[in-house]
Design brief:
Oligomer: homodimer
Largest interface: A-B, 63 and 62 residues
Largest sheet of chain A: 4 strands, mixed
Enzyme class (chains A, B): ligase
CATH superfamily of the largest domain in chain A: Bira Bifunctional Protein, Domain 2
Strand order of the largest sheet of chain A: 7-6-8-11
Structural class of chain A: alpha+beta
Number of strands of chain A: 14
CATH topology of the largest domain in chain A: BirA Bifunctional Protein, domain 2
EC number (chains A, B): 6.1.1.21
Keywords (chains A, B): Aminoacyl-tRNA synthetase, Ligase
CATH class of the largest domain in chain A: Alpha Beta
Helix content of chain A: 25-40%
GO molecular function (chains A, B): histidine-tRNA ligase activity; RNA binding
Radius of gyration of chain A: 25 Å
Family (chains A, B): Belongs to the class-II aminoacyl-tRNA synthetase family.
Number of helices of chain A: 14
Order of helices and strands of chain A: HEEHEHEEHEHHHHHHHEEEEEHHEEEH
Strand content of chain A: 15-25%
CATH architecture of the largest domain in chain A: 2-Layer Sandwich
Shape of chain A: globular
Chain lengths: 412, 412
């Protein structure tokens, strides 16, 4: 038997001695600033149901670590904290929160170890969930980013763009709708690859060379404006083709508003508006940004190129995914019961989680709740329970057409 | 398409709100006591090479979560922190340390959620590595356990046993050597199952019924002594069959020494000597213990049965696993070189990790190092490098029989 190889898996490392002390010191600083902004901590499992991670990461989905199918549910290691957070929001019914999460995430890519990016690596996330006035939470997050890196004494620049402007630009030059995300993902590589390489990828993905060049004239326009928000907005506004696109008009308005707020936070100097920034992830819908470290000379005189060390953006639709269907079903059932003159207390915050719907039914006599069940024709099972019985196991499954009769019978 | 099911995988949960605040408070207390005892923190990857976890967990190995084979190394989620710690010791060459690790571990069993045991759960480990006088570290760990639960205001009892006594007892009644661990694993279930059930399992595992009954007379002897260390030792010493076994004599001596130290720490009152305690894991070689919560009445008057909330034991051979072969090989090569009158600086602490061997070769002219390589006939590759070149990529692979000549040539 050959000896057992003593190593950590590819792209992973141990943390010990000075290294872990420094790491904990950094996390403590970050945690302090997160708390200062009212953040509440969340911790989620290291793996999620595979179905929850599906269709969230575009081309990068191939980098997800799957667990082996050993019977039972199919699971995969978390790829980020955003999707688990959206899943938690949907389950918990929480509508408004600033949450933070610090922990490890997993990506099965070629690790850039010299730049500090392994396959198992830490992320420190801060997210604003809720409905707010435009750009107010976005600007607070940017201000928080500046505070974190000032505390860590790292000089950074925040590159930003707006998905509406990016998508509008693609539409304006004629990129077909179904190629938007794949072309966007090619543009995203411009910080590491040359325009020739990116153009080649676009053509391989089915884009006409002429459209690629038209796109190039915008995403490579850095030299024609000074890259600050003001001059980039002027550059866009001076282009009739772009301003004919409603998406772009909306994006420009938001960027103008953002600029006001960044001035109020006194952090506009940290920011560059970069029309070539795209970010790989599918779920962003508004402002996107990436924080890059200003190259600093190392002990031996060479420059250390770390690249991007923080990133984020606005995602408006991720939480709704998979959690609203049942809300509409519940509305329909409430209407039916009310039409039958049965008083219904409709919980506006309940997620589809049965337990949660029941907990909030304290003053009710009969509790009706819905469960997702892929095995039924409409994907839903209706159950009723006569209170004060609280054991969900004792609930009765009822056919949709019998529901009103069954509820009446129990009320009698 | 059926809606995506919003839930966490079986046996996992989110931590938010008051729950995570309480959890962090508990960890802070534990961390404080670990530091008070001179513990240094270690953090290891959430998954390890599958080969490193193999043959460490006996029958429980089936509970390991494997990652899917997506190309590259075969990996599995960590099952505990002990095996990763042993792997880290072997890799780092560290010989003596008190290390602690707080984090999540993974077991694909039927989760006992009501008792707080999920599939993804936290462990807070404190381990003593090194060569010390008998029972000194063991008693310090027991004292640390008492301090932790006093700080958390949880009333506990520590059940303990000694693997030498357990194994000696099995040998004394005639359990065949190759059935030791599987019979031990059956005995371990006595806290949850009746003697009849355990006996049935033993017979299914191939043990004669007569031997099972003889074993029963010992492991069920709780009533014939008062379960404190002193009276249990007397019980064992009064039994000629047991005392004829060398293993048992050694175990009893250690338990007597331990009792002295527990009295010095003033914690003997927390301890019960339980001859039926076996612990499932294969790697223990000496004292083993399990901490159980004293049942406490809950708000509704029922008793909450949490069961064991901490456990551990001495494992003398886990670290050596896979790391010593190379030490002997290095000795042989050093001898050959010295015989050829070549001065050799033998690093007594170097593990088999090439990088580490090289780092410590500062004053050398030529560095010789060994790497494990399952593809070669003897499982080893020899490489040499002329300093100050430090790039391992530039090392030359040398046949064993050419080594002396090659070194001479370079020295000339």
């Amino acid at each position: 038997m050959p000896p057992v190889q003593m190593k950590t898996p590819k792209g992973t490392r141990d943390w010990a001695g000075d290294k872990i002390i420094l790491r904990e010191h950094v996390f403590e600083k970050i945690r302090g600033i997160f708390s200062l902004h009212g953040g509440e901590e969340l911790d989620t499992p290291v793996f999620e149901l595979k179905s929850i991670l599906t269709d969230k990461y575009g081309e990068d989905a191939k980098l997800i670590y799957d667990l082996m199918d050993q019977g039972g549910e199919l699971c995969a290691l978390r790829y980020d904290f955003t999707v688990p957070f959206a899943r938690w929001l949907a389950m918990s019914g929480v509508r408004q929160i600033k949450r933070y999460q610090i922990g490890k995430v997993y990506r099965r890519d070629q690790p850039a170890i010299a730049r500090g990016r392994l396959r198992e690596f830490y992320q420190c996330d801060f997210d604003y969930a809720g409905t707010f006035d435009p750009m107010v939470p976005d600007s607070e997050i940017l201000s928080l980013i500046v505070e974190v890196f000032e505390a860590l004494r790292i000089n950074v620049t925040i590159k930003m763009n707006h998905r509406c402007i990016l998508d509008g630009m693609f539409a304006a030059v004629g990129v077909p709708q179904d190629q938007l995300r794949s072309i966007s993902s090619a543009v995203d590589k411009l910080d590491k690859s040359s325009w020739e390489e990116v153009k080649k990828e676009m053509i391989q993905k089915g884009l006409f060379a002429e459209l690629a060049d038209r796109l190039g004239s915008y995403v490579l326009s850095k030299d024609s404006h000074s890259n600050d928000i003001e001059s980039t907005i002027s550059f866009i506004k001076s282009d009739e083709l772009l301003m004919a696109n409603g998406n772009i008009v909306k994006g420009v308005e938001e960027m103008e508003l953002l600029l006001q707020y960044l001035n109020a936070y006194d952090i506009a100097a940290y920011v560059k508006f970069d029309l070539s920034l795209a970010r790989g992830l599918d779920y962003y819908t508004g402002l996107i940004y990436e924080v890059i470290v200003e190259p600093s000379p190392t002990a031996d005189g060479t420059e250390l190129q770390v690249g991007s060390i923080a990133a984020g953006g606005r995602y408006d639709n991720l939480v709704a995914h998979g959690s609203t269907s049942l809300v509409e079903e519940r509305m329909a059932i409430a209407r039916e019961l009310r039409q039958a003159n049965i008083s219904v207390n409709f919980n506006p915050n309940a997620s589809q989680k049965a337990r949660k719907q029941l907990d909030s039914a304290d003053c009710a006599v009969i509790s009706v709740y819905l469960e997702e069940d892929a095995a039924t024709s409409d994907g839903i099972v209706i159950k009723i329970l006569t209170l004060p019985e609280k054991n969900l196991e004792k609930a009765t499954v009822v056919d949709r057409e019998d529901l009103v009769d069954e509820v009446r019978k129990r009320l009698a």
